[in-house]
């Protein structure tokens, strides 16, 4: 297994814009092409924003290359959560403000893993470098309310 650490950054709310720029540049240099690079940055931004809002106001993002994929692990010091906290479908507009970011991150990622507990959340997002824009059925059904979700 080839594994290369590309970025290791602690962050607070004040650092999120800089983190996005670092993620964009690092993903570009690693070979993640558009539009997947933009999707990668958006997905990680949603998870890091969640860490700031619900995970104690700060977190850590580590990005590495491993066997043809970019992986980003976001950790925080909050109460933690499980994969069950991520809605299976896009929450309805009257659902409130929470829930959409993690749902979106899962839809955009090739793989998303949630672990953790009382010591904080650990969310790992994975994007294959060789993949082109994949069909994101949840996003397609979100654009067409009532449409069937395809997986």
Write the layout of secondary structure elements.
Layout: E1 3-12, H1 16-30, H2 36-54, E2 58-66, E3 69-76, H3 100-108, E4 111-117, E5 120-128, H4 137-143
Antiparallel strand pairs: 1-2, 2-3, 3-5, 4-5
Helix pairs in contact: 1-2, 2-3
Walk me through the structure:
There is one protein chain. The chain has helices spanning 16-30, 36-54, 100-108, 137-143, and strands spanning 3-12, 58-66, 69-76, 111-117, 120-128. By secondary structure, the chain is of the alpha+beta class. The protein has one domain (11-142): Histidine kinase-like ATPase, C-terminal domain (Heat Shock Protein 90), CATH 3.30.565.10. The model is unreliable at 135-151 (pLDDT under 50).
The top level CATH class name:
Alpha Beta
- Alpha-beta classification: alpha+beta
Please report the total strand number as a whole number. 5
Sequence stretches where pLDDT stays below 50 over 5 or more residues: 135-151
The helix content, as a percent range, equals: 25-40%
Strand order of the largest sheet: 1-2-3-5-4
Overall tally of domains: 1
Per DSSP, the total helix count is 4
Main beta-sheet strand count, sense and barrel state? 5 strands, antiparallel
Summarize this structure briefly.
This protein is an alpha+beta fold. The protein has helices spanning 16-30, 36-54, 100-108, 137-143; strands at residues 3-12, 58-66, 69-76, 111-117, 120-128. It is built from 4 helices and 5 strands.
């Amino acid at each position: 297994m080839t594994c290369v650490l590309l970025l290791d950054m602690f962050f607070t709310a004040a650092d999120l814009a800089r983190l996005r720029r670092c993620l964009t540049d690092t993903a570009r240099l690693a070979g993640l092409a558009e539009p997947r690079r933009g999707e990668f940055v958006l997905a990680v931004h949603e998870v890091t924003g969640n860490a700031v809002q619900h995970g104690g106001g700060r977190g850590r993002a580590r990005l590495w290359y491993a066997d043809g994929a970019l992986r980003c692990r976001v950790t925080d010091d909050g109460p933690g959560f499980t994969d069950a906290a991520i809605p299976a479908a896009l929450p309805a507009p009257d659902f409130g403000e929470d829930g959409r970011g993690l749902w979106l991150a899962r839809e955009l990622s090739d793989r998303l893993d949630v672990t953790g507990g009382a010591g904080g959340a650990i969310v790992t997002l994975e994007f294959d470098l060789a993949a082109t824009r994949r069909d994101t059925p949840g996003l397609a059904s979100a654009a067409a309310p009532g449409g069937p979700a395809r997986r």
